[in-house]
Amino acid sequence: MNHFLPRSWMRLLVALPVLSLAVGCTQKFNDVSATVQEAYNNYVDVELTAEEIDAVPYASAYLKIGNQKQVFVVLAFAEHNPITGNTQLKWVSADKAMVVTENGHIVKTIGLQHNNLAGAHGDVPSFALENTEYSLSYDWAKQYRYGFPAHVKRVYQGKESVITPLSNSPADIYRETVHFSTLSQSVDNFYWVDANGKVIKTVQYLGPNMVPIELTILKGYSKS
């Protein structure tokens, strides 16, 4: 991916030309975007203080794509997935790109510069199951590639603390090897999971030959 001049660093995630949301949701999305835009001011490679993060009235995270600059994203929506019964978290950037996670797994992206994930479909087991295997199906927006089966093998890797301006959290590390049989290729994704079973950091590939996406939770989502 290309490097950008400092004054244009926020174009790491390009603006969405169209976003299909209801009127109320659109207002919420615009409010969130304005909040993130304000938080971005005066930062090139974002490093916010605990006070600055606390001042943002939404759950938030750091997002880093490949070797690009770290950016700040906030939670715009937390929505029920009727198919899996899980909650999908929709993280947005200052310029309205979106990364959607479910149980810590990236299941969709919108507005990234390259290789957007149109969807990762399947029932992901909780991290209470340390060593397990399951199946997913991947769709990629580029060249309209859909329905690629993937076999996922999860292995427990040990413990490590995740340090952010707000916390120092012990976490269990899991590696998931995602094998795409029709492509004869695999990727390794990593998850840091806290004592409550929530993913507080992850490094994931959206597919083979794609750059990794690192997401570190700063202020976590709470239903309350």
Q: Could you characterize what this model shows?
A:
The structure is a single chain. The protein has a single domain (6-219), classed as YmcC-like fold. By secondary structure, it is mainly β. Strands 5-4-3-2-1-12-11-10-9-8-7-6 form a twelve-stranded antiparallel sheet. Helix content is 11%, strand content 46%. The longest helix has 18 residues, at 23-40. The N and C termini lie far apart (39 Å).
CATH homologous superfamily (4th level) name: YmcC-like
* Quaternary: single chain
Ends: how far apart?
39 Å
Note the run of SSEs as H and E: HHEEEEEEEEEEEE
Mind telling me the CATH class?
A: Mainly Beta
What's the number of structural domains? 1
Shape: globular
Number of helices: 2
CATH architecture: Beta Barrel
Helix content: 10-25%
Which parts are unreliable, with pLDDT below 50 for 5 consecutive residues or more?
1-25
Strand-residue fraction?
over 45%
Report the biggest beta sheet as strand number plus sense, adding barrel if it closes.
12 strands, antiparallel
**Strand ordering within the main sheet:** 5-4-3-2-1-12-11-10-9-8-7-6
Strand pairing plus helix content: what structural class?
mainly beta
